[in-house]
Amino acid sequence: MIGGIRTDEQSKAWLGHNLDHWAENGFGQWMLRDTTGQLIGRAGLRWIDPSVGERIVEVGYVLQRSAWGYGLATEATAAIIAIARDRYLLAELGAIVLKGNDRSTHVLKTCGFVFERRIEDPVGPHQFFRMTR
Questions:
Q1: CA distances, 100 to each of 39, 48, 120, 131 (Å)
Q2: Which residues of 100-120 are buried (b: 16+ CB within 10 A; e: fewer)?
Q3: pTM for this one?
Q4: What is the dihedral of CA 43, 103, 93, 122, to 10 degrees?
Q5: Which residues contact residue 125 at a Cβ distance below 8 angstroms, ignoring those fewer than 6 apart?
Q6: What is the pLDDT of residue 124?
């Protein structure tokens, strides 16, 4: 399961948070499906967690392991960057990756993000990347 197993309450809260984000900002997470319609992940734009120390829109994605290795993360990230630039006129984007997640780091660098700094998080150390037009 993408994002781990959640209780019914946690699922409702997560969904509510995402629907509120869409309603307030006009953008958020999209579900990613394969050619058979099977859910394989999610990707999109959202205002980044305030713990990062600045207000910036984050490009984010997560794919089920079965969808890894096909270039889908790079394809989704490039499409999201284009939407952020062309539809929402965002000149700057951020992205956060768990330290050691070399595949996601590679995706971000391929799409034009540059490593900026480390971030400490309860889950573990993360890396913050930035893209500026």
A1: 26, 20, 14, 20
A2: eeeebbebbeebebeeeeebe
A3: 0.86
A4: 90
A5: 98, 99, 118, 119
A6: 80
Between the alpha carbon of residue 1 and those of residues 16, 37, 121, 123, the distances in Å are 19, 16, 22, 18
pLDDT band at residue 1 under the 50/70/90 scheme: very low
Which domains, and CATH codes, for the chain?
Answer: 8-132 (3.40.630.30)
**pLDDT above 90: percentage of residues in the chain:** 75
Cα atoms found within 13 Å of the Cα of residue 52, Cβ hemisphere only: 21
